[in-house]
């Protein structure tokens, strides 16, 4: 059991999402930085798809009446329990009655908390992930509030582990979108030669960027299927990267799409952060995904 003493900025019960319902208008959703939650679950002996908490920028204060084994990943929110500072990326023990307090992240945007046994919120469409736009999943379809009592499952076997955090990467790698040929040459050059700033209204629906306007020369489009990472360009020419809870169809032209291996990086971008793009080939994107999976397998050093 976890008691919410004080909520953070936006605390959501989250897992790896609910695939298979896009035809019914429900996006997959799930953790914005999916590997961060997956690795935290591994550290506490949970299945990779177990539900944990996604914490935005400033974390909550949580009491563990019966104690618990936890792990923190993603952005560093300078966690403490009593007088002890708790490092992220390690298997940690909270004593019975212990209070975990998380401050504001200095870098990155989202932290992830896994607890042994997982958070046992009622599943909806096969997932415990919160879907805020429709108010379902997670804990009563909303962000956590003071007084919430979150049930947790029975812990499973585990080993002590230490997570290695990856070094910062440069440009986001992208593949051509279906409407790329209808954009002006100058727009394509600007996309990869200039940088863009993440706008102040970025959220789980998408990240609106500010930078050079990208001119589209095509006509009106019928709605088409879209996925997280799709770079849509509305009439004002300022691109939008669709997020994890974004729509399943859209009528704006899609210039490009962020490759799967780089999607988790979007979850750590803060308003005002600047980003650059670089086109890659399909073969390079596939190789990047294979490397991404190898890196996850090697990210935790387990104690003997």
Characterize the structure shown.
There is one protein chain. The relative contact order is 0.17. The strands form 5 sheets. The chain has an 8-stranded mixed beta sheet with strand order 21-14-15-18-17-20-13-22. A 6-stranded antiparallel beta sheet has the order 7-6-9-4-1-11, with no helix packed on it. Helix content is 13%, strand content 28%. It is globular and about 65 Å long. The protein is built from 4 helices and 23 strands. By secondary structure, the protein is α+β, with helices and mostly antiparallel strands. The two termini are 30 Å apart. The protein folds into 2 domains: 2-163, no CATH class; 172-297, Cyclophilin-like (Cyclophilin), CATH 2.40.100.
What percentage of residues falls in helices of 4 or more residues?
Answer: 10-25%
> What oligomerization state is this entry in?
single chain
**SSE sequence, one letter per element:** EEHEEEEEEEEEEEHEEEEEEEHEEHE
As for the number of domains, it is 2
Strand order of the largest sheet: 21-14-15-18-17-20-13-22
Q: How does the helix and strand content classify structurally?
A: alpha+beta
Shape: globular
How far the N terminus sits from the C terminus, by CA atoms, comes to 30 Å
């Amino acid at each position: 059991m976890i008691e919410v003493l004080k909520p953070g900025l936006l605390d959501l019960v989250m897992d790896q999402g609910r695939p298979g319902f896009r035809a019914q208008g429900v996006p997959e959703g799930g953790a914005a930085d999916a590997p961060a939650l997956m690795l935290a679950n591994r550290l506490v002996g949970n299945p990779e798809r177990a539900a944990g908490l996604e914490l935005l920028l400033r974390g909550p204060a949580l009491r563990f009446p019966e104690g618990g084994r936890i792990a923190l990943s993603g952005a560093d929110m300078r966690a403490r329990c009593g007088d002890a500072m708790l490092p992220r990326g390690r298997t940690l023990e909270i004593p019975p009655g212990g209070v975990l307090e998380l401050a504001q992240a200095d870098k990155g945007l989202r932290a992830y908390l896994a607890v042994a046994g997982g958070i046992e919120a009622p599943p909806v469409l096969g997932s415990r992930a919160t879907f805020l736009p429709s108010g379902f999943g997670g804990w009563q379809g909303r962000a956590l509030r003071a007084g919430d009592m979150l049930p947790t499952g029975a812990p499973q076997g585990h080993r002590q582990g230490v997570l290695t955090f990856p070094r910062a990467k440069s440009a986001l790698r992208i593949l051509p979108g279906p409407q790329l040929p209808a954009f002006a040459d100058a727009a394509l050059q600007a996309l990869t030669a200039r940088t863009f700033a993440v706008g102040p209204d970025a959220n789980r629906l998408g990240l609106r960027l500010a930078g050079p306007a990208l001119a589209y020369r095509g006509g009106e489009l019928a709605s088409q299927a879209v996925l997280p990472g799709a770079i849509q360009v509305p009439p004002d020419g300022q691109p939008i990267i669709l997020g994890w809870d974004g729509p399943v169809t859209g009528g704006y032209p899609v210039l490009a799409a962020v490759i799967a291996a780089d999607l988790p990086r979007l979850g750590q971008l803060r308003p005002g952060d600047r980003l650059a793009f670089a086109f890659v080939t399909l073969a390079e994107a596939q190789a990047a995904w294979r490397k991404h999976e190898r890196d996850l397998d090697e990210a935790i050093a387990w104690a003997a």
